[in-house]
Write a structure and sequence with these properties.
Radius of gyration: 31 Å
Distance between the termini: 9 Å
Number of helices: 17
């Protein structure tokens, strides 16, 4: 009952591509296991014999191997639902998860593999301070300095310490690397990730993303104007912008949506000649690109002969095409009909949108001050030290939603650095604006506030308070949609550690090893772990029924039916089998004996042979 071991999955993928590199080896316990012969793999990927370390183009840092291992290593954890703290638990498609996002991304690998349309993250910017994401592979300053050659064996520094010291970059990169690797697995083939970042790590982040997503899938590096006035207190330059890196899962499969046209754009179209096709604007017919058929004289309606385009340029269309456009009234000669010809472009014939640009001014997508005001509007802080200073404006995330998602395809939006909850706020707001049905998964580590507030004491609590108030405001509008969420928390596995060899136990301890479920775990806790193990979405509809006094969970109209009560009668088993679910799960200790469990399996073979039956 752990998350999937991605090492085995990666070996299977390699076996498909390079069958000769997969072999057998003996592990520490003497068991045979599949393994990769890395010497053969290196040979497969090279056109010559590769001996030892070779110089190659790549981003490297101390701890990279451990970070890659951390992405693949399985964990014995699960998600426990918090029904009482959720809103519209039984019907909502939105999901909040509290826990370290590295654990969460591993737990979501089965249920959301290849299902997420958009990932937006605003990770902690690397300011040289410690991270709250305390991964197992993190190292102390002294360990890093010794291993990276910046200190001798006595611990004496060999180089000066600066704010941009390698350890800070290494810690940050080691934190980001496994999370990005796991996040990529969740993206759809036509999915895309947007990542906010500042000057300090933008270069490293772009290289890491190129390694994880493929350099060929780089889409854009957007500049966001984050402030509306310069900082006169800046020592060198006022930092007025941040970046947003954009990488797709498969660049050939993803194209950004067009943005709505602005009133300013439409105002450029006039109709001075009262053309029946409506307002128009004109464009130059001359181009710089060489065009063999683009050199010919033109006679204006006034009779003046224009020998050809300006020196060094070419007409962008052939003479025959020019005559067709002129006959159709699509050439503008000026009011005196004696000017250089220009092509008329009609507003009625323009496409419905505009191509997105890589420069996003605050006038279009908001600035940091606007973001802070929005947070204060929806969260009633009593202590100013709890107000986050690095929040993003809702309009910024809405712009990303407009570019990367569709309103009517139930797109999943994932943010595993939830923070103050800007992304779920933006999903609610954008759905209300265009009648959309987007849904979100937001992940936030359990981080307490500096000072507890009356109604919440953590970053996630702040986010939930915000979303409840946003939902209350939007609920009064015409287009409401799904304004609820399910809340779940990362916890240790529900399964008790009862596996023992005879030498590790005694007769008096056998009673404590009888139950396979940890004390205090409810049926809904077990249900969520089963959803994760079976790869079902955590927001699947759940109904709770009573059958012969047993609590029975019905997931998605019979995709899964589960009963985790301590005593399961044959009548309950038969009632569930008659409904012919795709999957059925029971608590192993709920059967009075092994015979009762075997009989239950036989009932399903006779009544519902297609049902996949398990006991945990």
């Amino acid at each position: 009952m752990t998350s999937a071991d991605l090492t085995d999955a990666n070996i299977d993928r390699l076996a498909v591509l390079f069958p000769t590199v997969v072999t057998e080896s003996i592990d520490a316990d003497g068991n045979v296991q599949m393994a990769v012969d890395f010497d053969l793999l290196r040979q497969e990927l090279s056109d010559h014999v590769v001996e030892g370390p070779q110089e190659r183009y790549r981003l490297d840092w101390p701890g990279k191997r451990a970070a890659a291992f951390a992405a693949n290593a399985p964990i014995a954890k699960t998600l426990r639902p918090a029904r009482e703290e959720s809103v519209d638990f039984d019907s909502t498609k939105n999901l909040f998860i509290e826990g370290d996002n590295l654990d969460v991304l591993k737990l979501l690998q089965e249920s959301y593999l290849g299902k997420v349309k958009l990932i937006y993250i605003d990770p902690p910017y690397n300011t040289g301070r410690d991270f709250i994401y305390d991964d197992d592979f993190a190292e102390t300053t002294s360990e890093y300095l010794l291993r990276s050659g910046q200190a001798d064996e006595e611990g004496q520094r060999l180089v000066a310490l600066t704010d941009s010291d390698g350890r800070y970059h290494s810690d940050w990169l080691s934190m980001m690397y496994p999370r990005l690797k796991l996040a990529r697995n969740l993206l759809r083939e036509d999915g895309v990730i947007f990542i906010s970042i500042d000057d300090h790590e933008v270069d490293n982040l772009r290289k890491v993303c190129a390694e994880v997503f493929g350099a060929q899938n780089f889409v854009a590096q957007i500049i966001w104007q984050k402030v509306f006035s310069p900082k006169n207190s800046a020592q060198w330059f006022s930092e007025d912008h941040d970046y947003i890196l954009v990488f797709s899962r498969d660049k050939s499969r993803w194209v950004p949506n067009s943005l709505p046209r602005t009133d300013e754009m439409d105002a450029r179209y006039k109709n001075p000649d009262e053309d029946h096709r409506g307002p128009w604007t004109s464009s130059d017919l001359a181009a710089r690109n060489a065009y063999a058929a683009g050199l010919y004289p033109i006679t204006t309606p006034s009779g003046r002969v224009i020998d050809g385009p300006p020196r060094g340029r070419y007409w962008g269309i052939s003479a025959a095409r020019f005559k067709e456009l002129d006959a159709d009234g699509r050439i503008w000669w000026g009011e005196a009909e004696d000017n250089m010809p220009r092509l008329k472009r009609f507003l009625s014939e323009m496409s419905g949108g505009r191509t997105p640009q890589t420069l996003w001014p605050y006038s279009e997508v908001g600035h940091t001050q606007e973001a802070k005001k929005t947070l204060l509007k929806y969260v009633p802080f009593e202590h100013t030290e709890n107000v986050l200073n690095s929040v993003k404006p809702v309009r910024l995330i809405q712009r990303i939603l407009q570019l990367a998602t569709s309103p009517d395809t139930h797109d999943i939006v994932l943010d595993f650095f939830n923070g103050s909850g800007t992304t779920p706020h933006a999903v609610f707001a954008q759905n209300a604006a265009d009648g959309g049905n987007r849904r979100f998964i937001s992940v936030q580590i359990d981080e307490p506030l500096p000072v507890p507030e009356p109604t919440f004491n953590s970053i996630l609590g702040m986010s939930l308070e915000r979303i409840k108030n946003v939902a209350a405001e939007l609920a009064t509008g015409i287009s409401v949609g799904d304004l609820g969420y399910r809340l779940a928390r990362v916890d240790t596995t529900n399964m008790a550690d009862v596996l023992r060899v005879p030498d590790d136990t005694n007769q008096l301890a056998l009673d404590s090893l009888e139950g396979s479920i940890k004390p205090g775990r409810r049926g809904e806790d077990l249900l969520f772990q089963v959803l994760l193990d079976w790869g079902l979405e955590l927001t699947a509809p759940i109904s709770v029924e009573q059958i012969e006094r047993n609590e029975v969970f019905v997931v998605e109209d019979g995709a899964l039916i589960a009963c985790f009560d301590e005593q399961v009668s044959p009548g309950v088993v038969h009632s569930i089998a008659k409904r012919q679910p795709l999957r059925a799960v029971f608590r192993d200790s709920g059967f009075a004996s092994d015979d009762a469990r075997i009989n239950a399996e036989q009932v399903f073979r006779e009544v519902s042979p297609a049902t996949d039956v398990k006991a945990i």
